[in-house]
Design goal:
Shape: globular
Strand content: over 45%
Number of helices: 0
Helix content: under 10%
Number of strands: 19
CATH class: Mainly Beta
Radius of gyration: 17 Å
Oligomer: single chain
CATH architecture: Sandwich
Order of helices and strands: EEEEEEEEEEEEEEEEEEE
Distance between the termini: 32 Å
Number of domains: 1
Largest sheet: 8 strands, antiparallel
Length: 249
């Protein structure tokens, strides 16, 4: 591994630029890292049944089908997946903190996922998103605030934002293929210019995405979801790790 240090927003950060492109370390007061390794990280409790000391819950919506949020057996490094099936109905499989939000986007915030679309969203209307969001609501586009990557009806990756006033979904110019692992990072050090990266390369244009929410409205939670409002479409999002960093003040 070749690690390179950079100062971004006055904070020292270390990246594995040669192989994985991931953030190895960031000198922030708040650090959250989950690699989903081990038996206790592979079984996700349902919303309303949180387990003490474990941050995640799952939200499943279905009538007859079997959407799932669960560990992938024997996956190197620990992997969780959110999956919906081909039953023709509304479905959702969401991994999140059960609306126990704690990440302040206004405090030099960075979030990073290593993720892949194991099954590409098969039709328009099937939506995979991952990033940070406000409280759960029916349909990820309806959340009050969020900063996310998304894919809808294909592997084309979009850059999504909603700050309570302005909602955007901008094409990144990058298309993921099925089972292609990539490192996705959102850097909110400059709230007037939220930057999105894939495998270490910036895919957002300068000064096109801002985030104006403040106070409680800017405190969000990690969020990874596959959703469809109806129909027989399918999609599976896999997550290898989630890393979040922020300053205390």
């Amino acid at each position: 591994m070749s690690t390179r240090a950079k100062f971004i927003g006055g904070v020292q950060q270390f990246f594995d630029d040669a192989q994985s492109y991931e953030t190895v370390e960031r000198m922030s007061g708040l650090r959250f890292i989950d690699d989903f390794v081990g038996a206790g990280s592979q079984v996700i409790p349902a919303v309303g049944s949180a387990v003490g000391g474990f941050p995640w819950v799952k939200k499943l919506v279905q009538t007859a089908g079997v959407p799932a949020v669960a560990g992938v057996a024997n996956a190197a490094g620990g992997v969780l997946q959110c999956a919906i099936d081909a039953t023709s109905e509304k479905q959702e499989a969401t991994l999140y903190w059960g609306d126990s939000k704690g990440l302040d986007v206004t405090k030099g915030f960075v979030i990073e996922f290593r993720a892949n679309l194991h099954v590409l969203p098969s039709v328009a209307g099937v939506e995979a998103v991952f990033g940070v969001s406000s409280n759960w609501i029916d349909g990820p586009d309806n959340a009050a605030e969020y900063l996310e990557f998304g894919a809808n009806g294909s592997g084309a990756i979009s850059l999504r934002s909603q700050d309570g006033t302005t909602q955007k979904s901008i094409a990144s110019g990058f298309s993921a293929i099925a089972d292609g692992w990539h490192v996705y990072r959102i850097d909110a050090n400059n709230l007037a210019d939220i930057r999105y990266f894939i495998d270490g390369s910036q895919v957002s244009q300068a000064n096109t995405i801002g985030f104006a929410a403040t106070g409680a409205s800017a405190i969000l939670q990690p969020y990874a979801s596959v959703y469809k409002p109806s129909g027989a479409g399918v999609g599976t999002l896999q997550v290898d790790y989630v890393k979040a960093f922020a300053n205390r003040a």
